[in-house]
Amino acid sequence: MPRWDPEAKERLRAAALELFTEHGYENATVTQITARAGLTRRTFSRYFADKRDVLFAGSEQLPDAMADAVRHADPALPPFQALLAALVAAGDLFAGLVSQAAQRRAVIASSPELQERERTKLAAVTEAVVEALRERGATESSAKMLAQVGTAVFQTAFERWSDQPADTDFATQVQEAAAELAAHLTP
Fold first, then answer.
1. HEC per residue, 63-95
2. Considering just the CA atoms, what is the radius of gyration of the chain in Å?
3. CB 131 within 8 A of CB 74
4. How far is CA 65 from the centre of its chain?
5. Domains, the chain
6. Lowest-confidence range among 17-26, 27-36, 45-54, 100-109?
7. DSSP string, 28-58
8. Does the reported pTM lie above 0.70?
9. Do 143 and 67 touch, CB atoms closer than 8 A?
């Protein structure tokens, strides 16, 4: 057996999601995850700090990625349109995760600890987007409001996309969620 398995991280992630779904997040152990994946605890530690990290690994990159996408949106776009363009661009970040996203959401919904971690992640994204919108000229108050609305549009679009990824692409889901929001705001 080779010393390095290029698919180890995904095998661990898949095994963890299966166990979290079958037994609950709190009841699944790293030992069970590694056994199901046919890997060692040392291999697990190479990729993840703990079992929670299986669900959130890489999420620390999301705030900077979203803020950069806002910064790089067409300078002629007003702040909210720049944010929507950034959300569409961010869809590429999640293309590889969409197949397990609905299962991941269900696991997170089952655990208050994981729900808190998800809220913390989204708050960090929102704060990073606020700063990027301010750099584009939005006032502090407007940047906060737009970032919070943008985060909600993102969550809605991602949830719908991950529930039925074959039906449409992420960009379409962002546009549809934004249009739905606009329809609710106009008399």
1. HHHHHHHHHCCCCCCCHHHHHHHHHHHHHHHHC
2. 18
3. no
4. 11
5. 8-54 (1.10.10.60), 58-185 (1.10.357.10)
6. 100-109
7. --HHHHHHHHT--HHHHHHH-SSHHHHHHTT
8. yes
9. no
